[in-house]
């Protein structure tokens, strides 16, 4: 752009600003939009959002479909069982477990706040093979088969490569700190950075809604 063009553009911009009129125009292949309508990040195609348990950015869309509380007699622990729907919006293969790093699950007790770890064995809780005293359940042999099928359908795909444009339903278990206080799911912009800025609105999961 030569000096003459620069002066012309400056003159036009000054005139438009002084007139107070909204305007869209093009000069020498350059497009200008002078007006009161400001584009926000929420309307940008690359925006990262998290609302009502639904996370979305250019790479993926994740929905929290279902939550429930389970207990494992094997580890004597309680867990939050979360069913997700995950879509790969990118042009590359990616593991659903990696995409879930966009979300964090937190829980407080009377004094501290904890990040919940995704280490709870969902199949062991839903299809128990041992009782609380360590003895085998009456349907242990049947439940072994059910647990295997369940893991094959909902758990193993977490670490398989999800193809571009495809979606899948998966389940992940988060070990609870307690069953008294609610769990909050939050989202972040950068799944690789634990200190990444939070986005959207936290999603509250009230454990008191479940009969244990």
UniProtKB/TrEMBL annotation:
TM stretches of this protein: none
Keywords: Plasmid, Signal
Superkingdom classification of source: Bacteria
Domain DUF5067 residue range list: 41-183
InterPro entries per UniProt: DUF5067, Immunoprotect_excell_Ig-like
Keyword flag Metal-binding: no
PROSITE patterns reported for this sequence: PROKAR_LIPOPROTEIN
The protein's name: DUF5067 domain-containing protein
């Amino acid at each position: 752009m030569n000096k003459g063009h620069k002066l012309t553009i400056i003159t036009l911009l000054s005139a438009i600003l002084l007139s107070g009129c909204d305007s869209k125009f093009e000069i020498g292949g350059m497009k200008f939009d002078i007006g009161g309508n400001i584009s926000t990040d929420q309307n940008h195609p690359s925006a990262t959002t998290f609302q009502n348990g639904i996370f979305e950015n250019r790479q993926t869309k994740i929905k929290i479909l279902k939550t429930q509380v389970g207990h494992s007699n094997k580890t004597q622990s309680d867990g939050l069982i979360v069913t997700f729907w995950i879509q790969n919006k990118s042009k590359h293969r990616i593991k659903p477990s990696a995409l879930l790093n966009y979300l964090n699950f937190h829980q407080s007790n009377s004094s501290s706040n904890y990040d919940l770890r995704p280490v709870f064995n969902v199949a062991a809780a839903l299809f128990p093979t041992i009782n609380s005293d360590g003895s085998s359940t009456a349907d242990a042999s049947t439940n072994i088969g059910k647990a295997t099928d369940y893991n094959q359908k909902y758990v193993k795909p977490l670490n398989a490569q999800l193809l571009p444009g495809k979606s899948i339903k998966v389940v992940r278990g988060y070990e609870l700190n307690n069953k008294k206080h609610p769990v909050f799911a939050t989202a972040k912009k950068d799944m690789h950075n634990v200190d990444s800025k939070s986005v959207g609105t936290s999603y509250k999961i009230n454990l008191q809604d479940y009969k244990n």
